[in-house]
Design a protein that fits this description.
heterotrimer; A: mainly alpha; 3-stranded antiparallel beta sheet; rod-shaped; B: 202 residues; two-stranded antiparallel ribbon; 7 strands; 15% strand
């Protein structure tokens, strides 16, 4: 690709194939001397500039980095040749030294590539085992358990079950008139005298609503029995206790409402 | 890393390498067979090896020698699935086997059923279903049994005499409990909840 | 059944097997090392082998013996980045490349970038470009990454915090190096290089 003959008099050098100014400079330097450390920067500058000039004659547009390098090298050359004072000459020499060192480092890296390329490379000169064996066994028999998920599961289950059940109001067990009649008939015989109607209510009923219902049923049952003449009822005052006793013979026959 | 063997395109190409200076042809063939079988990503058929051997050498003979050379070693030459491959000596494989524990988790249904058994034991399957408000699959029950987390605790004296289930010592062990009383009480779990159904369910 | 333990169960456990009847302990260790390294899909570190050996046996000694046993064979024991691995003998490559598809070789720009990373690591992309005097294409960088030859090594604490690149153990393995110190020293790369004093002949 690099069709070039580096010659001080006639340079037929194409920029094609060079990866940038440094690449070209290195190629020019290599042609100069075997030892990159001993190259002549001035000669190198001249060669570079003439290559660039030649290239510009063929092709007007050149990538900026080629021209930047050319301008910098021209400036460096002028400083090296015609220093205005000794301090400037020193600076120019330092810059030239840096350029030489950059070229030397690029050359070293190229040598490293050569060295690496000579190494037997895996997949090219040497091969690894094509079918490695795996001795890793995954044991999935164990059980990962923690308490929180267990408890959460329980609460979730209960909650979900609760959500599924339709809401039913608590069923009231109401003391019917029939219940009260039976209870009154059974208890009244054992009562010697007036007794409070509330005495005849079932003891096990504690709910206030159910108690009121039982009281009403017992009153209705009492009235019912009074109508048949079995008992008599009396109430001394409005909202006072309602009293009740078994009717005996022809005695008083007033009943409270 | 290696792309598939370009088998078909090269079956008819003979490539030979020369023995190194001072190397007997048989020794060279042995080395070649060894490297070829080592580097191949699948068992190497006899014919494939034969392709690379000089005309006078039979692949069978080379492989018999190679097999003998590896006999009793940590790696052995084995004939498998239509070809030859190196294989770790059977007595060493268990030593080299590395076991990586990857414990499973119980599925949600199993976890819920287990929790209900823990809190309501002894309990029948039907009772578990009533409490969960969902049916309990046989597989779920069997998973709990298989892991030794629940066990039968007699039968309930009702028609059909269903099995009663309870948790096992292994259950306590698995969940890091010393006793069932280490479990939080139901009221603690449901603190602040007054869903009427919950009271009934309990 | 074991309680959950999501870790490798053997990394810190010494596993030993008894030699087979009539087998010397060293012979047994050799077989083990052979099997372990043969089976592995990457170089086996010394410490990994040591885990499998009885207390009295040093892995280095076993490997030296094993290396001697495989010397000159079709498959050889190589010390590469990260440990020990079996590799085919380089002289057999012409045959093996017919059987095993070789990955494409790295282009020049990628090799240069790789060499620069190897010698200047940790190094930023810009620094690589400065040394090469040319820009580094994204494709080149990605090719190196894809081959697992380079890896990020933190960021440089300068504006923009560019990624720093370094080589991987795979790089060493790829080029048959035990360590980066196996590379020629920078000063040795240029034959006859003396102290870089510039001779400035006009």
């Amino acid at each position: 690709m690099k069709a070039q003959t580096v010659n001080d008099t006639a340079l037929h050098l194409s920029l094609e194939g060079f990866e940038g100014p440094l690449d070209l400079l290195l190629d020019l330097a290599r042609a100069q001397k075997v030892d990159i450390a001993k190259i002549s920067i001035l000669a190198l500058v001249d060669q570079y500039l003439s290559v660039i000039e030649g290239a510009r004659r063929v092709r007007l547009e050149l990538a900026a980095d080629w021209l930047v390098m050319a301008a910098w090298l021209a400036w460096l050359k002028s400083r090296l040749l015609l220093p205005e004072d000794p301090q400037q000459e020193e600076d120019a020499e330092a810059l030239a030294g840096q350029l030489a060192e950059r070229l030397a480092e690029l050359e070293r890296m190229r040598a490293a590539v050569q060295w690496l390329s000579r190494q037997p490379q895996l997949g090219h000169e040497v091969f690894e085992r094509g079918r490695p064996e795996s001795f890793t066994v995954t044991d999935r028999s164990g059980l990962a358990t923690e308490l929180p998920p267990l408890l959460r599961g329980y609460v979730d289950a209960l909650r979900r079950a609760a959500a599924k059940r339709p809401y039913r109001p608590k069923q009231r067990k109401l003391w019917t008139v029939q219940d009260a009649l039976e209870r009154l008939a059974r208890l009244i015989g054992g009562l010697p005298d007036w007794g409070d109607l509330r005495q005849f209510m079932p003891e096990q009923v504690l709910d206030p609503v159910e108690r009121r219902a039982a009281l009403a049923s017992t009153l209705v049952a009492g009235l019912e029995m009074a109508k048949g003449g079995g008992v008599e009822l009396r109430q001394e005052a409005a909202f006072g206790p309602i009293l009740l006793r078994q009717k005996t013979g022809k005695e008083s026959r007033h009943a409270a409402a | 890393m290696q792309p598939p063997e370009p088998q078909d395109t090269q079956d008819d190409i003979r490539v030979e390498t020369a023995p190194r200076p001072g190397e007997a042809p048989v020794e060279h063939a042995l080395r070649l067979a060894e490297a070829l079988i080592f580097a191949a990503d699948r068992p190497v058929p006899l014919e494939r090896l034969q392709q690379f051997l000089p005309a006078g050498l039979r692949a069978e003979a080379v492989l018999t020698l190679l097999k003998a050379r590896y006999a009793g070693r940590g790696v052995e030459l084995a004939e498998v699935g239509g070809g030859y491959a190196f294989r770790t000596a059977p007595d060493l494989a268990p030593v080299l086997t590395k076991v990586v524990d990857a414990p499973r988790r119980l599925p949600r249904a199993a976890m819920e059923a287990l929790a209900i058994v823990a809190y309501h034991q002894p309990v029948t399957r039907t009772e578990i279903e009533e409490i969960r408000g969902a049916s309990l699959s046989q597989a779920t029950l069997e998973a709990l049994l298989e892991h030794g987390l629940i066990a039968p605790r007699g039968r309930k004296e009702v028609p059909g005499r269903p099995v009663l289930w309870g948790t096992t010592p292994r259950f306590l062990d698995q969940f890091g409990l010393r006793a069932l009383t280490d479990l939080p009480r139901r009221e603690e779990l449901l603190a602040g909840e007054s869903t009427p159904g919950l009271v009934q369910a309990a």
